[in-house]
């Protein structure tokens, strides 16, 4: 049945392309895209296959004097889900995913305003791959090691040009959560740990906000941009929801087993307000950037009455309403065939609250050889939860690569990833995921 559905979607896609490409070609229809396939093997667990995916991404675009249509969709064939090797499963399923599809209307409804309507990415922030101020689109975390990927959101974007100042407004009417890895082991990385209590029955429910016009599921944001002294500055404000779940835990006496406790864990998406600031500039061959995001979260707290068990009332708070700050500062520099970038980040996307925020130093040193035919980047990421207890709270990733470009539009990458660290850290929880991989990409 799945194979018939896949062939049906492919047939519909081909017919639509054949019907519409001929009459609209004269109007400026252009097709771009790429083909990519990636395979990774574990360096542990008997070199088992841990990731395999083939992706065909197409990007149609039409430009006229006062409008522009842009689309981006992909046919994705995940061969192996990102799971523990023993849980890995091969699938013949082909997924048709619409990443972006929007219409730009220039000077509409007034001369100083541009509109963008449809499914779109809203890339706020200036950091490299990681952006504390980028909080409108849900994260795409299906592959944990592809940083900076987001899912498009159905939104209305209005950009107004007020002299040297640019004002952008965003309205997203419906809520969409982040895409998480398939393995429950890795999903647990993105919400707080449950308290250690003697539970008899555990129930887990995911609560998605209802789709209502105003408060319940909508998000909105404002951003003000201006250039000062050859630097680009912006200030932003977002009112929306966390796209990664927060557990809301309720305890109650088990009626069928005296002395035991039932647990109800609701994975919810509380609201948050975010004030952001970012800058980017360059001096000579040195480029620099920085971001600050101050989060004002909605409290997630429950009070459970366990007086029947002699425990009284128990209060469990999984998210405090205390403001916390994430920030980033980085730079890059290139000279001849050598390129280096580095950035310090306080707080990964899944970390919430002052006590959870960790410190990360992400760097890349890249050598270019044979007139750009070969590039050798050395990627590193160091995590430190507490600098005063460095030896007990550190973890790191080492990921060297060899990139070969036989032609301008062809890329072949052989990669290695080594992870080690303490189990209390985010990266340390994944230290058994040492891998070697091969990725081939052809752009057209």
Structural overview:
- The chain is mainly beta.
- The chain contains two helices and 23 strands.
- The two termini are 33 Å apart.
- The relative contact order is 0.11.
- Mean pLDDT is 86; it is low at 18-26 and 81-90.
Keyphrases for this structure?
6% helix, 3-stranded mixed β-sheet, mainly beta, globular
Topology:
Layout: H1 2-25, E1 29-42, E2 49-63, E3 67-80, E4 95-105, E5 113-120, E6 153-162, E7 165-172, H2 184-187, E8 199-206, E9 219-228, E10 231-241, E11 246-253, E12 261-268, E13 271-283, E14 286-297, E15 300-306, E16 312-319, E17 324-335, E18 338-346, E19 359-369, E20 374-384, E21 394-407, E22 410-421, E23 435-443
Parallel strand pairs: 8-12
Antiparallel strand pairs: 1-2, 1-23, 2-3, 3-4, 4-5, 5-6, 6-7, 7-9, 9-10, 10-13, 11-12, 13-14, 14-17, 15-16, 17-18, 18-19, 19-20, 20-21, 21-22, 22-23
- Poorly predicted regions: 18-26, 81-90
Largest sheet: 18 strands, antiparallel, barrel
Q: Based on helices, strands and strand pairing, what is the structural class?
A: mainly beta
Per DSSP E runs of 2 or more residues, the count of β-strands stands at 23
Q: Compute the separation of the termini in Å.
A: 33 Å
Give the proportion of residues in helices.
Answer: under 10%
Overall mean confidence score, pLDDT: 86
Structural shape? globular
Q: How large is the radius of gyration?
A: 24 Å
